Amino acid sequence: MPEMYFHVRWPDGREERCYSPSLVIGDFLQPGRSYPVADFVQRCEQALGEASARVQQKYGYFCSSAMDQLGRIRDAARPFEGTDGTVQVESFQSGAR
Question: Which string of DSSP letters, residue by residue, matches 36-72?
Fold first, then answer.
């Protein structure tokens, strides 16, 4: 499956490279756009859940890397809960790790 990386900037300015095992992330996030933190997390939950399901359909098992990435996103978002912070999607990158 084609994997995709999405680069984000958290409200505190920290940048992070995130992983998706599928190009489906592009259906939920757009480079150059900012999302309120809760919305960003929800979109990632949907996108990475769908990406993991696609892996399961093709290979017979869910993608643990997608779920691990979702856990890291949830952890990174926690300090910004209840704030007006936004997550900026900087870019997408396809290709090998």
Answer: EHHHHHHHHHHHHHHHHHHHHHHHSS--HHHHHHHHH
Predicted confidence (pLDDT) per residue in 30-59, tens digit: 999 999 999 999 999 999 999 999 888 888
> Is the torsion defined by CA of 96, 16, 42, 32 positive or negative?
negative
Rounded to whole angstroms, the Cα distance separating 9 from 27 reads: 19
List the structure tokens of 22.
């599928």
d(C-alpha 61, C-alpha 79), whole Å? 32
Q: What pTM did the predictor assign? A: 0.91
